[in-house]
């Protein structure tokens, strides 16, 4: 893959106290299984994001383990009860040791 995987998140900037908000995430990533061959017949190396984690103010509230059957550009959505203002941290971990991160702030009024 010639481009670096790009994480994107959609989190409301503001919420009312105890409102349930939807968080949407997507990362541009080929999720190569390691079973395909290139045009010259060589095996394309495996490159899979295996773990996705979402935390709020340093506390993990959602974690998913992904496997080779997950399609390219994996999308993950989740719901969260907004009880206080703070910062979300999202992390995608790749087979090769790479970690891709994104952050978003939430203000609760």
Summarize the structure.
The chain is mainly beta. 0% of the residues lie in helices and 54% in strands.
Structure characterization notes:
With 109 residues, the protein is mainly β. It has a single domain (7-108), classed as Sandwich (Immunoglobulin-like), CATH 2.60.40. The protein is 0% helix and 54% strand. It contains no helices and 8 strands. It has strands spanning 6-10, 14-15, 19-28, 49-56, 59-65, 75-82, 86-94, 99-108. A 5-stranded mixed β-sheet has the order 2-8-7-4-5, with no helix packed on it.
Strand residue percentage: over 45%
By DSSP (H or I, 4+ residues per run), the number of helices equals: 0
The multimeric state of the shown protein is: single chain
The chain-level mean pLDDT equals: 94
CATH topology title: Immunoglobulin-like
Using the alpha-carbon principal axes, give the shape: elongated
CATH class: Mainly Beta
Encode the helix/strand succession as letters: EEEEEEEE
Distance between the termini: 43 Å
Major pleated sheet: 5 strands, mixed
Topology:
Blueprint: E1 6-10, E2 14-15, E3 19-28, E4 49-56, E5 59-65, E6 75-82, E7 86-94, E8 99-108
Parallel strand pairs: 2-8
Antiparallel strand pairs: 1-3, 3-6, 4-5, 4-7, 7-8
Keywords:
Immunoglobulin-like; 0% helix; elongated; mainly beta; 109 residues; five-stranded mixed sheet; 8 strands; three-stranded antiparallel sheet
